[in-house]
Amino acid sequence: MKSLIKPLSLGIGFLLLLLLLAIILPFLIDINPYRPQIEKAIRSQTGMDIHINGDIQLSLFPWIGLELNELSIQDAAKFGPEPLLHTGKIRVNARLLPLFNKKIETEMIVLDEVKVKLVTLKDGSSNWIPAAPGKAASTTKEQSDIASRKDTSDRQPETVKTSQILPATLMLGGLQIRQASLLWQDDLNQMKVEINPFNLNISAFEPGKPTSLKSDATIQSSPDGTKADILLQSQLDFNEALNKVGFSSMKFDVNANSAQLPAPLLLSVGGNGQVDLQQDSAQVDLSIRSGEINSALATTISSLSTLPHIKGKFITQPFNLRKQLEQYGISVDTSDPKVMQSAALSLKFAGDQKTIHLKDLRLALDQTEITGTADLSFAPSGYRFNLNGDSIDLDRYLLKSDNPETAAAAAATPAVAALLPAETLKSLNIQGNLHFNAFKVSDMTLNNLSVPVHASKGLITIAPVTAGLFDGKISTETRIDVRGRTPVLSITQKAKGIQAAPASRVFLGKTLVSGTANLEAKLKANGNDPQTLQNTAQGDVHFRFTDGAIHGINIMETLRTARAKLKGQPVAKSTAPMKTDFTEMQGDIHLSNQIISNENLDLKSPFLRLRGHGNVNLKNENINYLADVKITATPTGQGGKDLQDLVGVTIPLRIGGTFDKPSYYPDLKRLVRKQVKKKATKKIRKEIQKELQKKLGIDLKGLF
After folding, report:
1. How far is CA 671 from CA 102, 492, 611, 644, 646, in A?
2. Where are the alpha helices (DSSP H) in 268-393?
3. What letters, b where the CB count within 10 A reaches 16 and e where it falls short, cover 27-45?
4. Mind listing the pLDDT tens digit for each residue in 461-497?
5. In degrees to the nearest 10, what's the CA dihedral of 553, 558, 561, 562?
6. Phi (first) and psi of residue 661, to 5 degrees
7. Which of 204 and 132 is assigned the larger pLDDT?
8. How do residues 560-615 score in pLDDT, each as one tens digit?
9. Cα separation of 424 and 667, whole Å?
10. CA 187, CA 123: separation in Å to the nearest integer?
11. What is the DSSP letter of 108?
12. Where residue 100 falls among pLDDT bands split at 50, 70, 90?
């Protein structure tokens, strides 16, 4: 027994001596005189110009700890006098005895007044990238290492388990970063972002037990003048193996102001989730609120460390879109003040870093609902979609002008801005189709509207756009070619069974023609602004109308009035409508140099036949047209008798004026001249016939 007492006493004495030294030595040994050597050692290992301006405090028992004051990493002179990094205080303490058993137990780690300055100059150099010296040697060594490992390049990388890099027990007293700041100054792109202050507080951490996190920061950027206050707090839960972490009761709030925003942008995100390193996956459920918009996002991510794949769903509850836009100063003075009262969005998504697939997409706006699918590609960028809408009235959403003078001035101002963004169109990669059961715009309703779109390498084709319109059907093909220097716009259209009267009211503002219309048009224009496109537009249109009327003129009544005036007779008051009925009207139109010309108008009706030719100048809207009218029969009644003697006679009808004020008048003087010439010719023929009969003594009737 005595033999054990002596060594045990020596052992206890030795431990007591170590304990005494650990407590006393930090007070006896001052390492501050060795700061230059410490700075030099750190500088040689990191290549950074480090200075420790404050005191260094060391403790060994019961905590092995270090406290640094006023540590800084100096910048090169060209980056300014402020250091790259400056700290007020860094304090780290760990229990000594648990270290011998692979246990780490620390007190709260504290970093006070940490200031970081990151600068990129106009020449592209950055202060956080080490200088060039030593780079070549490093590269040579790196190449040597690669060569030495060449024979093992085909081996699979070894999996490093968490237990191989972590101690048996890890207990951290927490982390505090107080009054820190970060300045990022990019002179090359003329941008500046400052985070000041930044605070972070993480409570004591021990695997298997909850940990709380709280952080706040203020971010300011220029030149846009944006300022945002950010708050983040959550509870973190690590398992004992430290390969799974969950977060709950998460709250992320943003309050942002900008010179471009009339009101603060408020964003609040809450939720929970989990990251599982063992399963290489993550799962997140978030609620998002911004102003009047409440949304929910649920997503899972697999293959986190290799090729992440994401899937989930996103839902926005119905919200007042008008109120949300007005909150940010966006004018919504629509023609119908009751629109934009309700909007909602929902969709499911799945994809990776190359493509995102959207399905079960539903967009609701007031009484309109659009559903479908879409694909978004990132490398290369592209869009695929198939969207179907029930019905929408775009006229309700058009902005109205409260100032007629302003609207008139805007309309009179020539458009010089680019109409087709050529460079943007060249990069488009789109293939999709948009369908609406009913699509109303400019007081016309297109039924079963289908709009296929294909865009690739600068050629955009929107074809064939099909729809029911004015009780008929239309088919249109539009091509926009921006592959050359000047964009080329081509339009081919076919219309069948169109009711002309409502179409005329929509496109011309009044009924000029009625009946059933069939049209075929091919138009082409070059340019990139409305005026150039109008100047270069050219093409042909074939038209045919049946069982209709030309409104605004009654040709029979016009001839009757002109005939009465020519004879000096009183003009009888007529109650006949101002229109000329026809059974068929057809012809061809040619457009070139802003001149619309027609050379083969052919109109047939029960009482007349009309053939016309002439042109219309789109620059000044002047009409120059001549129609030859031949009366084939007259209506019964008093009015018909007035024109009975004109049956079979071709009467020239001049059409002039402008679109707004057209003029019609029969060229009766020309008719009289023709009749006189005709009669004179007959009389001369008769005189010649008589003379020849006398001389020859034979009957010459029928020869002339």
Report:
1. 120, 42, 16, 16, 11
2. 321-327
3. eeeeeeeebeeebeebeee
4. 999 999 999 999 999 999 999 998 889 999 999 999 9
5. 140
6. -130, 75
7. 204
8. 777 777 666 777 777 788 889 999 999 999 999 999 999 999 999 988 899 999 99
9. 56
10. 9
11. -
12. low
392 class by beta-carbon count within 10 Å (0-12 exposed, 13-18 middle, 19+ buried): buried
- For the purposes of burial, counting CB atoms within 10 Å of the CB of 275, is it exposed (0-12), middle (13-18) or buried (19 or more)? middle
Q: What is the pLDDT of residue 149?
A: 44
User: Which has the closest alpha carbon to 371: 394, 390, 396?
Assistant: 390
For the ranges 137-151, 505-519, 523-537, the lowest mean pLDDT is seen at: 137-151
Residue entry with tokens 């012809």: 587
| CA–CA dist 679, 685 (Å, integer) | 10
Q: What's the whole-number average pLDDT of the chain?
A: 79
In 3D space, the residue among 277, 266, 269 whose CA is nearest the CA of residue 297 turns out to be: 269
Burial class (CB in 10 A: 0-12, 13-18, 19+), 165: exposed
pLDDT digits (tens, 9 = 90+) for 618-637: 888 899 999 988 888 776 54
Residue 433, class by beta-carbon neighbours within 10 Å (0-12 exposed, 13-18 middle, 19+ buried)?
Answer: middle
Beta strands in 175-225 (DSSP E): 175-186, 191-202, 210-222
Instruction: Tell me how far apart the alpha carbons of residues 605 and 548 are, in angstroms, rounded to a whole number.
Output: 10
Beta bridge partners of 480: 460, 489
Residues 6+ apart with CB under 8 A from 443: 395, 505, 506
